[in-house]
Design brief:
With 314 residues, the chain is of the alpha/beta class. β1 and β2 form a beta hairpin. α5 runs parallel beside α11.
Length: 314
């Protein structure tokens, strides 16, 4: 350490952290809103302070020396802690919420205006994934994930996470009210008079097999099949009168409540799956995290009050 500089050069440290994170002097300069020579000057100042090289020139740009790599790791963690401290003091902080794309489209997004109206300061970052394996890989503060049933309540699943029961994943036959009036379904065998809408992605690709087995109509052939890759598209086809679909609770509750879809039969498919709210414990100082978490649980509770919509009117 240079005795003439007893205090660490904070600006130089911030500049070096940006260079290390972005892997480029030019990108760091753009990110910090300064010139490249200014970045290079701060790098030299920090190297003078630590008494050794932190970066090396290579054909593709720059790389970190072993000393620089170790320092970058410490600085990254340090600046993250500073950011969390400022968020705690100010009551601010972005919340990342991860969900399946179909769940976002049919359940979450239609409710988000309520969250924003109640809490206009909320900075919510929504991350969606098409498949469950992809969703599980997302780093998020909160995630809504279908899991095998464990019973309602809270259960710890890892040191950094816990999951809270949100809603069951049971399912019903659904079709448009116009199609039900034109070609009514009054018994399970009546599906033979209709086009059936199926989903190709696992595990929804097994829905019709389960439903036919439970209803005792295995082997019944419909007029035709229409296949879709995801639940959202399949249910929109049902709303449009294409045919009969199998809709899971979260995917159909709004459409059934509004009358865009109807349930012709009372029989539902029970499921060993349910939606759980996976919560991160790495949210120290983020006041908005608790607001979003409580809002999601409140929305699920409100939906529970709508169970009557799943009673067929026919």
């Amino acid at each position: 350490m240079n005795d003439r500089n007893p205090q660490p050069p904070l600006l130089a440290m911030r500049v070096f952290e940006a260079v290390a994170r972005l892997g480029s002097v030019s990108l760091a300069a753009s990110s910090l809103g300064v010139t490249q020579p200014a970045v290079s000057q701060q790098l030299r100042k920090l190297e003078l302070y630590v008494g050794g090289s932190l970066t090396e020139r290579v054909s593709t740009g720059i790389t970190l020396t072993p000393r620089g790599t170790r320092l970058a790791e410490r600085l990254s963690a340090g600046f993250r802690l500073l950011q969390e401290g400022m968020e705690e003091a100010s009551g601010k902080g972005q919340v990342t919420l991860a969900v399946l794309s179909s769940f976002a489209q049919r359940w979450l997004i239609p409710r988000m205006s309520g969250l924003q109206q109640q809490n206009p300061e909320i900075d919510l970052r929504l991350v969606t994934r098409a498949t469950l394996p992809d969703l599980r890989r997302v780093e998020a503060d909160l995630a809504i994930i279908p899991e095998r049933m464990m019973g309602a309540g809270v259960e710890k699943i890892a040191i950094k996470n816990e999951k809270i029961f949100l809603m069951p994943d049971d399912a019903w036959l659904v079709l448009s009210p116009e199609l039900q009036m034109k070609n009514p379904v009054r018994a399970a065998a009546d599906i033979s008079k209709h086009t059936l809408i199926r989903i190709e992605e696992s595990p929804r690709d097994q829905d019709w097999q389960f439903w036919m087995h439970k209803s005792g109509v295995e082997g019944v052939e419909p007029v035709s099949w229409q296949s879709f890759m995801n639940s959202s598209h399949a249910l929109e086809a049902a709303v449009a009168g294409v045919g009969i679909a199998i809709g899971h609770r979260a995917m159909i509750i709004d459409a059934v409540s509004s009358g865009r879809l109807v349930l012709p039969l009372s029989m539902s498919i029970g499921s060993d799956m349910a939606y759980y709210l996976s919560t991160s414990r790495n949210t120290f100082g983020n006041a908005q995290y608790g607001i979003v978490k409580d809002w999601l649980l409140a929305q699920a509770h409100e939906d529970k009050k709508k169970d009557g919509v799943f009673t067929p009117p026919f």
